[in-house]
Design a protein that fits this description.
The chain is an alpha+beta fold. Among the domains are: 37 residues; 81 residues, Histidine-containing Protein, Chain: A, CATH 3.30.1340. Helix content is 34%, strand content 11%.
Length: 190
């Protein structure tokens, strides 16, 4: 079997005056070989891809097909980790969705929180227990103290010469005060 250079040399001898054409064809052949080599190389992830761009890429690749669960699955990305939340009908769909996301080179990890109908939504294990949601949580109206107003707390200390606050003006039946820096009355009568 002859090498590429042997073929080129034989072609040069046969063409005679078409040397320039052969040179161009040779360059094209070398470019095609180089392109095929690059295409066969493993795809490397882009280093500078931010979370929003990665989220859009995951959504466009995974939900591209006609029957994709676009409405029932939510995609979020934090530090290159993709979080899948939602509900799918079959366990194999859940696994296929996770596998499709893992194939994207820029994805550093996948947290699959997708669940089946009739099953509780999973929670992340590293979320503090008091912040995890459970099905036993009572509705807001049934919780003790739900009807009581919440007192607002502030760390700001009021000075003696401070303007009255909105709550104090409301208690006195007064409205909002004009701006202190020499505001003027712009009503229609003045």
């Amino acid at each position: 079997m002859s090498t590429l250079n042997d073929v080129i040399d034989r072609g040069r001898r046969m063409t005679g005056g078409g040397l320039e054409r052969l040179r161009r064809l040779t360059k094209m052949a070398q470019g095609a070989v180089e392109g095929a080599r690059h295409a066969a190389a493993e795809t490397k992830p882009k280093q500078a891809m931010d979370d929003v761009t990665l989220q859009r890429k995951v959504e466009s690749i995974v939900f591209r097909s006609e029957g994709a669960p676009k409405e029932s699955v939510n995609v979020n990305v934090a530090d290159g980790v993709v979080y899948l939340r939602g509900q799918l009908k079959r366990p194999e769909d859940v696994r296929a969705l996770e596998d499709a996301v893992r194939e994207i080179p820029e994805v550093r990890g996948v947290e699959n929180l997708v669940h089946l109908p009739g099953t509780p939504a999973p929670t992340r294990a590293d979320t503090p227990r008091e912040q995890q949601k459970s099905r036993e949580t009572a509705p807001r109206s049934a919780r003790p103290g739900a009807g009581e107003p919440v007192a607002r707390v502030t760390t700001e200390a009021r000075t003696a010469d401070a303007e009255p606050g909105p709550d104090e003006l409301a208690a006195e039946g007064k409205g909002r005060q004009p701006a202190p820096m020499g505001s003027q009355d712009t009503s229609a009568g003045g």
